[in-house]
Specification:
Blueprint lengths: L2 E4 L17 E4 L3 H28 L6 H8 L7 H26 L5 H20 L6 H7 L11 H14 L1 H6 L2 H32 L4 H32 L5 E4 L4
Parallel strand pairs: 1-2
Antiparallel strand pairs: 1-3
Helix pairs in contact: 1-2, 1-3, 1-9, 3-4, 3-9, 6-8, 8-9
Length: about 260
């Protein structure tokens, strides 16, 4: 039999003298340390991203400027900023999945809500990585000619999705501990204000001034910063819930011989 036990930690404790068939690996995730690392990484990426667009707009060329911009541009794809945001959302999805498994094992009344949230963050992670939402802009424009705040027309279906999630989770949120509920609401407000709220402002600026302006780049920087902050706060809230609500949680993967 092979057992893998996941508790709160980042270290592995192998037993080299024990055969692999009987080994047990313990993974410890230290929540506060992880949140500090993620927060510092997000702050660094946002700072580098803003410096990049500022230097391109106002400063003369310097060594490796274009490389720095390509790696850290906050509205770019397949670069460090995009990779970090994608992995952050998928990490949140993984923690939600662990909670969903624990709730399913105890037949908790809200196990399906936890599972739905996990799947939602998997979708958001994929969306962040490949920009699925941008594929909706043209179809919505063909249906309804919109400009101004609705220039980026994907905000319409995604706004409706956000509203549906809020309504569906209203009862679920009321049953949570007060600190966890507040953390989820605040993190959701941060994320939505960036992903949808500032996207509306960007649509207005795009219609009024065009896409390639410094004002637009500042809005994009603020948008990505709020999305990262919301995701990190949500992850911190989930880790707190694990510590307070499921202190003895163990996820054990066993492989039985045929």
């Amino acid at each position: 039999m092979k057992d893998v036990t996941v508790t709160s930690g980042f270290s592995t404790q192998p037993a080299p003298h024990v055969p692999i068939s009987n080994s047990r690996v313990v993974l410890r995730l230290r929540g506060p340390a992880l949140i500090r690392v993620l927060s510092l990484t997000a702050a660094l990426l946002v700072s580098l991203g803003f410096w990049g667009i500022y230097s391109v707009t106002y400063l003369p060329d310097y060594f490796a400027r274009d490389l720095i911009v390509s790696l850290t541009y906050l509205n770019g794809e397949t670069n460090l900023a995009s990779l970090f945001s994608t992995l952050l959302l998928l990490l949140v999805a993984a923690v939600l999945g662990v909670i969903a498994l624990a709730k399913a094992a105890t037949h908790d009344a809200y196990r399906r809500v936890w599972t739905g949230l996990a799947l939602l963050f998997v979708f958001l992670g994929i969306d962040e990585g490949v920009s699925l939402h941008e594929l909706l802009i043209e179809p919505v424009h063909r249906l309804v000619k919109v400009e101004g705040v609705l220039y980026y027309a994907w905000v319409v279906p995604y706004g409706l999705l956000a509203l549906a999630v809020m309504v569906a989770c209203a009862r679920f949120l009321r049953h949570l501990p007060q600190a966890v509920r507040r953390g989820m609401l605040l993190s959701g407000a941060l994320y939505i204000s960036g992903a949808l709220g500032l996207e509306l402002a960007e649509g207005y600026v795009h219609t009024l001034m065009g896409r390639h302006t410094f004002v637009m780049e500042v809005l994009i920087t603020a948008e990505e910063a709020l999305e990262m902050a919301g995701s990190i706060l949500f992850l911190a809230t989930l880790l707190r819930y694990l510590r307070l609500g499921l202190p003895g949680l163990e996820l054990r993967l066993s492989q039985q011989p045929d």
